[in-house]
Write a structure and sequence with these properties.
alpha+beta; Aminopeptidase; Alpha-Beta Plaits; 2 domains; 6-stranded mixed β-sheet; 15 strands
Length: 407
């Protein structure tokens, strides 16, 4: 059974990290990165700070094994932004209530980072030396552009790694890859006029609405991809007009498309352009489209097979899809290093329906779930770092399962 020491350490680390704001934008992850380094140093683990700029940084550390070429445990230090006024508890003051840990980033993903720190500390303090290195990667800028992970991948610090374990919440499913992420920005330009005589102008908002509805229908009609699920569309931002009594001459729409395969990427780009040009022609407006960012799906047979074997051997669940529905730092690390990526099963994904409790939805983590997460993470670590590489240990820290022995 997992020791109270590990659970308490992981929970304490998560609470400590939550107290340090790192919402992105603007990020400013250097402060929380320094806190993570301090927690590692207390167990004698040295680390390196990689600066994106003066107040943004990632952390890389190692638990040394018998040889190099080990497993990356990856988590991001930034969170999404929030409005503290919508919280029932202060977002940067972690609190425990009704079996939950409350705080901004509790689930995504300071509890996961806390678990990484706790596991590394327990291994070192108990004198467990893995057969290969355990590489800790704590990144900046995951929520916006994955630049921290890209910098780490390019630094040479993790060039010898063989596998990547992302400790994002997955709703207790294990995945061997992830969907792609396509962000598009489109704009319609019309002609201003006074609101009392709208017929003398050309609204940019009206065609933008038609465009969004048509593209939503087109994306929803894309067929599901075997083992990968459906491509989805979220219209994340819609802006237009400068005053209520003026016909708006510009409307901008930003869309987040999670693509199940690269063929769908091509289809979405083609359809978006065709629909936009058609609507613009019919409404005598101008249409522009640009790709803000694109990260292809991350999936390979080896990673999917490894996820399957993990699930079968440890009793973990696998969903109908073999890749997770969101994007992670794997988009920057896997292409650079040609690694296999695994998303272990962690609690609280998908989150409860927003609106029921703002501080629970998406960022509340069951404390009981954290205990379960610790157990599952330890289970995976044993299998990947110790057992498969030829070294088995029976410390009470770890669970025992069919492979003989614990994101």
């Amino acid at each position: 059974m997992v020791t109270n020491s590990l659970f308490d350490r992981a929970l304490e680390a998560a609470q400590t990290l939550i107290r340090v704001p790192s919402f992105n934008p603007p990020g400013r992850e250097r402060a929380v990165a320094e806190v993570a380094r301090d927690l590692l140093s207390r167990s004698g683990i040295s680390s390196r700070l990689l600066l994106l700029d003066e107040d943004r940084a990632s952390v890389v550390a190692r638990v040394e094994g018998a040889r190099s070429g080990g497993l990356i445990l990856c988590g991001h230090l930034d969170t999404v932004a929030t409005d503290p006024a919508k919280w029932r508890t202060p977002p940067f003051t972690p609190s425990l209530a009704d079996g939950r840990l409350y705080g901004l980033g509790a689930a995504d993903m300071k509890a996961g980072v806390g678990l990484i720190l706790a596991l590394a500390a327990e291994l070192v303090e108990r004198g467990v030396r893995p057969a290969t290195d355990l590489i800790l990667v704590l990144t900046a800028d995951e929520e916006e552009g994955y630049r921290g992970a890209a910098q780490v991948a390019e630094s040479g610090e993790i060039a010898d790694a063989r596998e990547l374990l992302i400790l994002e919440p997955t709703g207790c499913f294990v995945y061997g890859g992830q969907k792609g992420e396509l962000w598009l920005e489109v704009a319609f330009t019309g002609e201003e006029a006074h609101g009392s005589v709208p017929q003398t102008g050309r609204s940019a908002i009206a065609p933008a609405i038609r465009f969004v509805q048509a593209v939503e229908r087109a994306v929803a009609a894309l067929p599901p991809v075997p083992d990968s699920g459906r491509t989805t569309l979220n219209v994340g931002q819609f802006t237009g007009g400068r005053q209520v009594n003026i016909v708006p001459d510009r409307a901008v729409v930003r869309m987040d498309i999670r693509v199940a395969c690269e063929e769908h990427t091509s289809s979405v780009l083609r359809t978006t352009g065709e629909v936009g040009r058609e609507v613009a022609s019919e409404t005598e407006t101008q249409f522009e489209m640009s790709t803000v960012s694109y990260h292809p799906p991350v999936r390979n047979p080896e990673g999917v097979d490894l996820a399957r074997r993990m699930a079968e051997s440890s009793g973990m669940r696998r969903g109908a899809e073999h890749i997770c529905p969101y994007s992670t730092d794997a988009v920057s690390i896997v292409p650079a290093l040609k690694l296999q990526v695994i998303h272990p099963q962690l609690d609280d994904w998908p989150p409860p329906v927003p609106g029921n409790a703002p501080n629970i939805s998406y960022h509340g983590l069951f404390v009981a779930g954290l205990a379960n997460t610790v157990a599952q993470g330890a289970e995976i670590l044993l299998y990947r770092v110790l057992d498969e590489y030829g070294h088995c240990y029976s410390y009470s820290l770890y669970l025992t399962f069919s492979f003989s022995l614990e994101h």
